[in-house]
Amino acid sequence: MNLHYRVEGEGEAIILIHGLFGSLDNLGLLARVLKEHYQVISVDLRNHGQSPKSDCFTYREMAQDVLTVVDDLQLNTFSVIGHSMGGKVAMALSEIAQDRLTQLIVMDIAPVAYQEHRHKNVFAGLLEVAKHTVSKRSEAETYLAQHVVEPGVRQFLLKSFAKGDNGYAWRFNVEALIANYSTIMGWSPIEPFTGKTLFIKGQNSEYIQTAHRNDVAKQFPNAKAHMVANTGHWLHAEKPDVVSRIILNFLNS
Questions:
Q1: What is the pLDDT of residues 196-216, one digit of tens each?
Q2: DSSP string, 25-42
Q3: What's residue 116's pLDDT?
């Protein structure tokens, strides 16, 4: 699958991978900082943004999509930064590109299967919007608000609500995300990656827990960890300067 991607800056290559319901613009603040020092490749994962849609949605397939971008750009080595679901794609990439991946940074996700369904209200809201003919984003937000209470979450989702040839629609493939939700939240343990690895946790987020320490150590034996105070799952949006500094310090260490 040929992903949509954007290349900025020059130097050693870094791949940025967004999370569920996102697009390459979600890590734009981080890309803006990194492109001053590196060649930054931001990707839209399959079923997201302007990349193709597919009913197949495993982490290995998504990792292979990213590796295809790396090959197209003829990159011998590269680093990767992924947030949430994109962090799992980055971890899966470490298994199929061990010899080429120089540094791995995972933002607020662990290499584990999560049991809790965290997005029922989001899917209900997306499907509610899809039931109606909508001519502007404000109308979509009204329908979305019936299920999604948090204004910030609604605004994040609406970034992927775009006007196409047949009117407004979600850019991400809602049906495929629903059908593959257990895979998205799941995880199959991978072969250990012994390269430089950093896990960054939002202090108030529940996605990385003390109970996950053994899973991290088994699959990423040389991993370091850093906690960002007073942030949740969207740590890079809440404290972009702090997160950028942590990442740059790690990359340069």
A1: 999 999 999 999 999 999 999
A2: GGGHHHHHHHTTTSEEEE
A3: 87
Judge whether 233 counts as a catalytic residue: yes
Identify the pLDDT of residue 206.
94
* Active-site option among 18, 48, 83, 233: 233
State pTM to two decimals.
Answer: 0.95
DSSP lists the bridge partners of residue 82 as: 17, 106
Fold classification of 5-114+186-252 is Rossmann fold (3.40.50)
Q: Cα–Cα distance between 85 and 20 in angstroms, integer?
A: 6
pLDDT at 143: 95
Is residue 135 classed as helix, strand or coil in its secondary structure? coil
Q: Is 117 a catalytic residue?
A: no
Task: Given the residues 23, 51, 79, 84, select the one marked as catalytic.
Answer: 84
Domain borders along the chain are 5-114+186-252, 120-179
Query: Quick one: 41 exposed, middle or buried, by C-beta within 10 A (0-12, 13-18, 19+)?
Result: buried
